[in-house]
Amino acid sequence: MRKIKMVDLQSQYYKIKNEVDNAMLSVMDSATFINGPEVQMFQKELEEYLEVGHAIPCASGTDALQVALMALDLNEGDEVITADFTFAATVEVIHLLKLKPVLVDVDYDTFLIDPKKIEAAITERTRAIIPVHLYGQVSPMEEILELAKKHNILVIEDNAQAIGAEYTFSDGKRKKSGTMGIVGATSFFPSKNLGCYGDGGSIFTNDDRLAKKIRGIVNHGMYERYYHDEVGVNSRLDSLQAAVLRKKLPHLDGYNEARRKVADYYDKVLSESKDLLIPKRLPNSSHVFHQYTLRVLNKKRNGLKDYLESQDIPTMIYYPVPLRKQKAYRQDLEDKDFVNTDRLVDQVISLPMHTELDEEQLKYITDHIMEFFK
Ligand SMILES: *Cc1c(COP(=O)(O)O)cnc(C)c1O
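A: This is the predicted complex of the input protein with pyridoxal-5'-phosphate.
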């Protein structure tokens, strides 16, 4: 059996090695390393794939979130609502821009921000909501967009974990994740569902005026060379990374399908265990399984993790500490308002999840999990 990895980028690369190598070599031949034609072509292809007006590539997912917030004319102290249970980048950028993060609890079964908790957290100073499509499942966008409209609040989607997922509204309309809010942000970090071979990210919007502004901000606020109209940053996607992404984008739906098959296998076997809860899938949100995350009941999570490790099965805890309890972002909030987050940090375990897992490996993983609980 091949060694089981949490993420196997090497095997995935070998399948497209020739194409990718040639694409990278041709960028080097042309020496168009920054803003070369590959970047423009990738941008167009991404816009077509997502059916979104504008994709603005940038240097990372964190930058994508930061630039999105910078473009929205928020003022110091404005409140931004997001989940307490997510990767720290989301609150990091809120802090950097001197905005005020307002953390709310997530739903226990879906791990996603809870619209009821959002509504309860809205104040006069609330200007934005950042739903995170955690683990690859789209947040309940219909409810979130309705709330935002009612209270005149902006929605910024953190789509770093869910690129390629779709959401179906109650009128039957379907939209790709990251294209429903005023802006969306994604990451091309190597292990993400659409990963490049370094850092990369993109911002999405259907608003032409905002897109123009964002294109300026990622490039030092310049719209005309050496005329700076906005305070900007230097955040560009390399041509080499764009060349890799152009070769991988046509595989994205296939990659996501492969992940879903792994999740189906896990679900089928592991739903039999009374010590485990499998991830809940929402009917109107397609899940692209950036992570496959179980909840382990009866305080057996750490024991399971150690046992699997001893059997050469890697696992990860995404995430062990709620954001409100992180040293950098500590907020004295009442634990009773974060019951689900606090249960989840003790119960969650993410299993190996990538596009190259085979049946032998999946059987080995699930056999050992079931064995542990026997
Ligand atoms: C990965 C990730 C980011 C940050 O992306 P980088 O490209 O690593 O900067 C932001 N939010 C979430 C939810 C992520 O998973």
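The CA atoms of residues 18 and 175 lie 33 Å apart. The first strand starts at residue 54 and ends at 58.
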